[in-house]
Amino acid sequence: MSLSLVLTLLGAIFLLLLFRYILTPLFLSPLAHIPAAHPTSVFTPLWISYHRRGGSQALPAITRAHSLYGPIIRLGPHELSVRSQSAIHKVYIEKGGFAKPKFWADEFMSYGVRNMVSMQGGIGSKEHAGRKRDLGNVYAKSVLLGSGVLSDVAARVLRGMDEVLERIVGEEDNADAEKTGSGVMEVYNFNGAVNADIASSYIYGTDGRTNFVGDVAKRNEYFEHHGTWLKGKHGHAESQKWLEEFGVQLCGPGVSALRDEEKGGADAVVYKQLHARGLRGNDMASETLDHFIAGAEAPRTTLTYLQWELSRNPTRQARLRTELRTLPLDPTTDIPNLKALDALPFLDAVLMETLRLYTPTPGPQHRITPPEGTTIHGIFIPGSTRISASLAILHHNAEVFPEPGVWRPERWGGGDKERESLEEMRKWFWVFSKGSRGCIGKDFTVIVMKLIVAKMYSKYETEVMEDGNMEQEDKFLAGPVGERLVLRFRAVK
Ligand code: HEM
Where does heme bind (predicted)? Predict the structure, then answer.
């Protein structure tokens, strides 16, 4: 081959690459009109990949880019981030919302099979709609608030929680008590334990439930594997295996609950519903394990931040206690009526504000545009473009939530006249996402957290003894970096 032919060939290849990787993304791609988060984001995903190293969600980088370049930005050649109401409506709500990208859905699979959260879904997805139907109304608010089962299982677990608190306040030496003094306890895993025990009772039945409140070693073992798996740490595969084996054990007693049904047993609400719809084996284990994990982890984070804020705000803590003490307790269960509890305005405001400011899943909720593409902000976006909104960014909109970084429950009303525009705030409150893929457990987790707070704060006051590093991790499930909050509990007359 002559030298001139070689040079011509090389020149042609160079021009082709220039056209494909520089000119097209810069001028010809429909995405060319969208501001780039970083100058290189137009050509390569290197910038966003760099910020995502080590399992990070790149939330600070995405937040900064939005504040510089507006409501729709280009994170990579084929990836966008949005933060406007019209955009999130299109991505997550309209026609059931866009599908999840495969890599993202796969993250949440267990036993190699898909559960609800790991289904890709998308417009008209029969698989996802079918599983939603299978679950029936087990997590519907009206069912939960009127449910004797939830009251009963919660009352049992909360009795156990109160026994632990009574013991540590009573100065006895036990596995929960720190050696630093009376009433002092590390609460991060303890909060997870109380939530896990209530969730597992409702899902698998009281025979099958975890006893993390009573069994500190098992609790810590679980959260250790859980953290390793979620954060993709070294040992991730082994921890996933451990969790899957644990999930199978939890499923076992559900079968006996089914047998007991003839005797009128009302337990294992979720297991029984799915069993009646034909779920068996790994499909059952995968679906229920996901609910259990969700029921333990996200509220662990929320309760820990709620206690941290209340402990640093004695006036608000006292106001909450006064409100809680207006509720009569059921003499048999020793917990309040669920409907009355749910209606308490200041308790609701405290929880909403904590969920807003310390969103447990604050980062991008990934989706992919449908094959025919879509139009957002008047710009055509081709099919198969990755697109997401980050929940914490929505919660920091200063026009809707003035001083967004400040924990101020009063902004939600709570009986105060100074409340901000409630309707607008609710529109921007996306902690459970929205649309057909919104959280199915949201009413369950809200009522359970309210019960725990009511039981704890009507009887005890708390102050911070040690709060290590309470900054939120930049992870999919974002707990405090220090994974530790030590409180002192004191019984209040
Ligand atoms: C503070 C507590 C919780 C928070 C902040 C939370 C948040 C979320 C969010 C943001 C999503 C959407 C995820 C996505 O689009 O990929 C979601 C979905 C989901 N959540 Fe929750 N969740 C919580 C508690 C629970 C509980 C207790 C359950 C147990 C029943 C649960 C079960 C689910 C399921 C099954 C989905 C998937 C729904 C679907 O794909 O259609 N969550 N949750």
Answer: 439
Q: Whose CA is nearest to atom 20 of ligand 1?
A: 439
Q: What is the CATH number of the domain that holds 421?
A: 1.10.630.10
Within 13 Å and on the Cβ side, how many CA atoms surround 483? 9
Residue 203 DSSP symbol = H
Q: Please say whether the beta carbons of 59 and 474 come within 8 A.
A: yes
> In terms of residue numbers, what domain contains 19?
1-29
Kindly state whether residues 19 and 97 are assigned to the same domain.
Answer: no
Of the chain, the end-to-end C-alpha distance in Å amounts to 96
Distance CA 66, CA 29 (A): 21
Q: Does the beta carbon of 299 lie inside 6 Å of ligand 1?
A: yes
How many domains does the structure of the chain reveal?
2
298 lines ligand 1 (CB under 6 A): yes
State if residue 74 touches ligand 1 by the CB under 6 angstroms criterion: no
* Residue 302 Cβ contacting ligand 1 at under 6 Å: yes
SS3 assignment, position 229: helix
**Cβ neighbours around 7 below 10 Å, total:** 10
Does ligand 1 lie within 6 Å of residue 433's CB atom?
Answer: yes
Q: What atom in ligand 1 is closest to the CA of residue 92?
A: 15
Tens-of-pLDDT digits for all 493 residues of the chain?
Answer: 788 888 888 888 888 887 777 777 777 788 999 999 999 999 999 999 999 998 899 999 999 999 999 999 999 999 999 999 999 999 999 999 999 999 999 999 999 999 999 999 998 889 999 999 999 999 999 999 987 889 999 999 999 999 999 999 985 545 554 554 589 999 999 999 999 999 999 999 988 889 999 999 999 999 999 988 887 778 889 999 999 999 999 998 777 667 666 555 567 999 999 999 999 999 999 999 999 999 999 999 999 999 999 999 999 999 999 999 999 999 988 999 999 999 999 999 999 999 999 999 999 999 999 999 999 999 999 999 999 999 999 999 999 999 999 999 999 986 655 556 899 999 999 999 999 999 999 999 999 999 999 999 999 999 999 998 999 999 999 999 999 999 999 999 8
Closest atom, ligand 1, to C-alpha of 299? 1
Q: Whose CA is nearest to atom 14 of ligand 1?
A: 365
Q: What's the gap in Å between 38 CA and the centre of ligand 1?
A: 32
